[in-house]
Amino acid sequence: MIAKIPYTRDLVLVGGGHTHALVLRRWGMNPLPGVRVTVINPNPTAPYSGMLPGFVAGHYTSDELDIDLVQLARFAGARLIPGNVMAIDPIAKTITVPDRPNIAYDVAAIDVGVTSEMPKLAGFADHGIPAKPLGAFAARWDAYRKAATAPKIAVIGGGVAGAELAMAMAYALRDKSPQVSLIDRGEVLDDFNPPARNRLLAALEELGVTLVENADVAEIRIDGVRLADDTVILSDFTTGAAGARPHDWIADIKLDLHEGSLIVGPTLQTSDPDIFAVGDCAYLSHDPRPKAGVFAVREAPFLFDNLRARLAGEKTMRNYYPQKDYLKLVSLGGKFALAEKLGTARSGSLLWKWKNHIDRKFMDQFDTLPVMEQPLPLRVADGVKEALGDAPMCGGCGAKVGRGALQGALETLPVNSREDIISLPGDDAALLKTGGETQVFTTDHLSAVTNDPVMMAKITTTHALGDIWAMGADPQAAVLSLTLPRMSAQLQQRTVTEITQAVARNLGGAALVGGHTTMGEGLTIGLSITGLCRRAPITLAGAKVGDVLVITKPIGSGTILAAEMRRAARGADVLKCYQTMIQPQDVAAQLLKDAHAMTDVTGFGLAGHLAGICNASSVGANVRLSDVPLLDGALNLADAGIRSTLYPDNRNDPRVTAPDTANGALMFDPQTGGGLLAAVPKAKANILAKNKNIWIIGDIIGGNGVTFS
Question: In Å, how far are 76, 282, 450, 451, 682 from 37, measured between CA atoms?
Fold first, then answer.
């Protein structure tokens, strides 16, 4: 047996900039065994700056603009933490992100770019839109472009970034007669030599951009920009592309700085050798250069090699020296570009095609990530290929044993004869009589659907609490059962601390009273939980003809998680799926306290769990497919044929009739951290319908079985 190499070092990449994206791609192709990689970024995607003017102009979609960090992290075997870094402590070697335990590191790298926020400019925080960070700006612009009727735009900053944005905006809204003003305290584009500047000025004039030069901005108002001489430039979309500066928290790290940027040497290390910095947030002390994306891209192979060297305890590193000059390609609004280098300038449509080719080639690296899985040996035991299937084994409920195998095993158990245990018709939890109290007891465990132990702990906790909430009980106590991948004692402590803190904070009032740990092939988290019933418990039995069926969460998590493992799901959809899975159901359970029957929707899917209610209650059910809420992206993925590994067993349920469509397939999709499914009196339907987190999906009818129509 070949021992799996344990994790012994934590590498944390702060920010999803161009350099880190390229490092992650290289890491996926050639990881350093023993290193656990973490990426922290506010969003699931990172926009590529080279294509931003083209996106603003309408030449590219948001999907074409963005690097999907969720897919890239999966490829690299890294965990992605969505959030804003608030602090780094180089002494304790921890990183602070809101709403989660501190993240420990052995080696860290920072690639967070700069910000164009202007906190000292009156009104900017309320009415201005910084051009950087790019992701937030792109989202605001996309919404404005679609809604604008008589657009009035002001761009503060007459450098190349401001000019590109002004031209792109004017071009994008050319059919709406836009008023676009480019404001600068000096002369617009004065950093360019005359040949290039004249061409750029001509392009601005052709697109109708008004230049406001030698102007001091005094205030940003809701209706425009007020200058120091009280002139008002009308604007309902004011953006700042001047004065880009480092993020404020960078200075709090207490490392050596140059004008707020982290000073690095040839190896890209800061004054702390365990912290590297690249891109616009770094200052190359040995060979200073202006802020430009080309340097961030060129730094990637050097950062990759030097991170590996530091993590491996090696002394030798590579030195990065930037080129003296570089080709500047500037978008001119339409599909035209200007090229400038060594004092010469050219412009035209062919240069835009060249720029477009360069940009798309860069992005293709992330859109077509190679397949790195190891093939099966030439000879394997009979049945291995069929058991493995065509796709990787899903995590969460998708990795559980199917309904047939589980029920077959349960039927072999002896009949319960204990008086302190109340037998229930098919419920997942047990009802116990203890000291005059009615106690719910349940257990559940999940294999990891994400490499982030904190997110996995939250998902498991919410999922395990489902049986408690479904029976109308209040969470009481919990015991943790944890299997970690092989890792050093130091990483064990870090990981167990993260998990236990996350579980304890999300137990819905229950106390985490202990647990057990072991190591295995991968992360699994289990919880045994008790709850107290203050009133008669709600079970599967009790649904009545005429009841209304309601559900408290959209479905489709199994399909999205299966797609994420294949790197086929959009990162934004994956993170939204995670957020839905960790949404507590205590409030929903309270609203459904008068339900006749209730369960949580988990491994058997909506169809299987509803069939369980119908069996226990001796009724039938009709569900309107169009009324069942779906997670974003789930229907498209199901339509593409993506299924969870538990889907075939769920679909083979003779109690259920459903169309052979993508929508129908989702009814059998195993859910992790799913919502509550309840049969409630029809008289209460109108009240429940007013809650945005409760959906009415069908009715309890006479007969038996479940029909989706």
Answer: 8, 21, 13, 9, 52
